[in-house]
């Protein structure tokens, strides 16, 4: 799908993130079951799915026919970044037909001696036509990713790097600042737990919103209910 067509499709919408990694209740070793979550999200009207792992990218594309924002979560020795940290994962996602490739564009430590600017430039050079999403945690990281030619910036990592604010809810401020500066889509992502917060993300300037755990992580949802009741 062409970049412009994809942008038109997701503008002002909720993209559902369907992810389960080993250790999570919905991770099944033998086969991907995330395509069932994606089926539900499609029926609800989502224009695209965000997912992790090659097998889930493939299964979800096959099930839904929707464009997919793909990433590979992997923790290499010496790396803090774990979202599509090296060219190997980028190559695999491209080969799997991922419509968008999401990668960590934070200042977190990389174990390969490359700066994040070098890595982004390598990816952009190798795949000039790919649609690349930068998962960032601060304003400065967002600006740098944009300057280096990333196509989309997402606030995915805000709250998950040691130096970004630890908020209970979404980072509306970051969305607001980035969307007023950048001429590429800024996706509001991370801890959007209610429909009201999704609307607030768009009101803050987000081009689209990604909602994950609040829809597709039953453990997280159940914990939130139980915690609230226990605190009563
Ligand atoms: C920090 C990190 O690793 N985020 C991951 C990135 O893809 C996913 O685990 C999140 O579910 C996704 O960002 C959506 O966020 P939330 O599930 O809060 O709606």
From TrEMBL:
<dbReference type="GO" id="GO:0005975">
    <property type="term" value="P:carbohydrate metabolic process"/>
</dbReference>
<dbReference type="GO" id="GO:0019262">
    <property type="term" value="P:N-acetylneuraminate catabolic process"/>
</dbReference>
<comment type="similarity">
    <text>Belongs to the NanE family.</text>
</comment>
<dbReference type="GO" id="GO:0047465">
    <property type="term" value="F:N-acylglucosamine-6-phosphate 2-epimerase activity"/>
</dbReference>
<dbReference type="GO" id="GO:0005829">
    <property type="term" value="C:cytosol"/>
</dbReference>
<comment type="pathway">
    <text>Amino-sugar metabolism; N-acetylneuraminate degradation; D-fructose 6-phosphate from N-acetylneuraminate: step 3/5.</text>
</comment>
<comment type="function">
    <text>Converts N-acetylmannosamine-6-phosphate (ManNAc-6-P) to N-acetylglucosamine-6-phosphate (GlcNAc-6-P).</text>
</comment>
<dbReference type="InterPro" id="IPR011060">
    <property type="entry name" value="RibuloseP-bd_barrel"/>
</dbReference>
<dbReference type="InterPro" id="IPR007260">
    <property type="entry name" value="NanE"/>
</dbReference>
<dbReference type="Pfam" id="PF04131">
    <property type="entry name" value="NanE"/>
</dbReference>
<dbReference type="InterPro" id="IPR013785">
    <property type="entry name" value="Aldolase_TIM"/>
</dbReference>
<protein>
    <recommendedName>
        <fullName>Putative N-acetylmannosamine-6-phosphate 2-epimerase</fullName>
        <ecNumber>5.1.3.9</ecNumber>
    </recommendedName>
</protein>
<dbReference type="GO" id="GO:0006053">
    <property type="term" value="P:N-acetylmannosamine catabolic process"/>
</dbReference>
<keyword id="KW-0413">Isomerase</keyword>
<keyword id="KW-0119">Carbohydrate metabolism</keyword>
């Amino acid at each position: 799908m062409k970049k412009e067509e994809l942008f038109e499709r997701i503008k002002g919408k909720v993209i559902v993130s369907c992810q389960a990694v080993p250790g999570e209740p919905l991770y099944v070793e033998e086969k991907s079951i995330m395509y069932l979550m994606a089926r539900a999200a499609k029926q609800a009207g989502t224009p695209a799915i965000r997912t992790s792992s090659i097998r889930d990218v493939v299964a979800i594309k096959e099930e839904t026919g929707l464009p997919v924002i793909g990433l590979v979560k992997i923790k290499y020795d010496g790396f803090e970044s774990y979202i599509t940290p090296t060219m190997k994962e980028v190559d695999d996602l491209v080969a799997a037909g991922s419509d968008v490739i999401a990668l960590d564009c934070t200042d977190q430590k990389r174990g390969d001696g490359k700066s994040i600017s070098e890595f982004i430039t390598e990816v952009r050079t190798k795949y000039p036509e790919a649609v690349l999403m930068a998962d960032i945690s601060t304003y400065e990281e967002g600006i740098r990713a944009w300057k280096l030619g990333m196509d989309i910036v997402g606030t995915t990592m805000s709250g998950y790097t040691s130096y970004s604010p630890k908020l209970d809810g979404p980072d509306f401020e970051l969305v607001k600042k980035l969307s007023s500066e950048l001429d590429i889509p800024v996706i509001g992502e991370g801890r959007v737990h209610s429909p009201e917060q999704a609307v607030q993300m768009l009101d803050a300037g987000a081009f689209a919103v990604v909602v994950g755990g609040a829809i597709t992580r039953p453990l997280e949802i159940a914990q939130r209910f139980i915690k609230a009741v226990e605190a009563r």
